[in-house]
Amino acid sequence: MDRGFIFGDGVYEVIPSYGGYFLRLEQHLNRLDASLASIRLDNPLSRQEWRSVLRHLVGAPPTPDQSVYLQITRGAPPRRDHLCPDGVSPTVFASASPIKPRDPKIATHGVACITRPDIRWQRCEVKSTSLVAAVMMRREAEDAGALETIMHRDGMVTEGAVSNVLVIESDTIMTPPISHLLLPGITRELALLLAEEHGIRYLEEPIPLATLRNADEIWLSSSTREVLPVTRLDGEPVGDGQPGQLWQRMDRLYQAYKEQVRNGDV
Ligand code: PDD
């Protein structure tokens, strides 16, 4: 009767580790707290307990690169009722799996995306396990020979089914501002931080679908896929149809940051 199973009543995180060190661990745990607060569930573990669970899962450095999936549900009451009775203990689940190295073809050819209306709810900032819309969108992308579906609401880009979207125009990174319409991605935040540190201009502002279609470059960001260049959108080339110059620069910065994580330096 677990409410994760019955209602999708839970939240989750995906946290990558490199060489046994976690990338942006505190930011991930902060977002977990924010998701839990949104669904009014107390965090069953302290920060210190989470750190030790995660350490136990990936092992002591140096270890192979792994990502940890963790999920907390409201637990398993005796019967199905949308209103959860008091006194039910949350369920905590966590597992680690190897991070596959990126297919080298991605850096040379990029990936394809399709666009679709955003059919999700209005609390997309919550990293909820209710993901059937994302499952449908990813399937549509796959069926169209694409990696990801970029969604839009009222003519404005929101995000990918499982990633954030960044758009490059005139050497400036643009990405929709944080709101209830999208997940505050940790990779998105890191890409903007790296941009800031290295003097690359960026703007957090609403992006009309027409801007996406005319972009010089489009990037996707997520913990498991890092920052990816999109070279085809709805079957049309993005820019010149090749991974862009700015993406190449961002990827170098991102890979260098990962190396710092791997060495325990950040
Ligand atoms: N998804 N937006 C959505 C809807 C996502 O599901 C994700 C990540 C992101 C990127 O967030 P971050 O950079 O913090 O990973 C944006 C994870 C990886 C997943 O569901 O597997």
UniProtKB/TrEMBL annotation:
Its EC number is 4.1.3.38. It is an enzyme of class 4 (lyase). GO terms for cellular component: cytosol. Its cofactor is pyridoxal 5'-phosphate. Keywords: Aminotransferase, Folate biosynthesis, Pyridoxal phosphate, Transferase. It holds the Pfam family Aminotran_4. GO terms for molecular function: 4-amino-4-deoxychorismate lyase activity; transaminase activity. InterPro entries: Aminotrans_IV, Aminotransferase-like, BCAT-like_C, BCAT-like_N, Class-IV_PLP-Dep_Aminotrnsfr. Pathway: Cofactor biosynthesis; tetrahydrofolate biosynthesis; 4-aminobenzoate from chorismate: step 2/2. One of its GO terms (biological process) is folic acid biosynthetic process. It catalyses: 4-amino-4-deoxychorismate = 4-aminobenzoate + pyruvate + H(+). Belongs to the class-IV pyridoxal-phosphate-dependent aminotransferase family. Involved in the biosynthesis of p-aminobenzoate (PABA), a precursor of tetrahydrofolate. Converts 4-amino-4-deoxychorismate into 4-aminobenzoate (PABA) and pyruvate. This is Aminodeoxychorismate lyase.
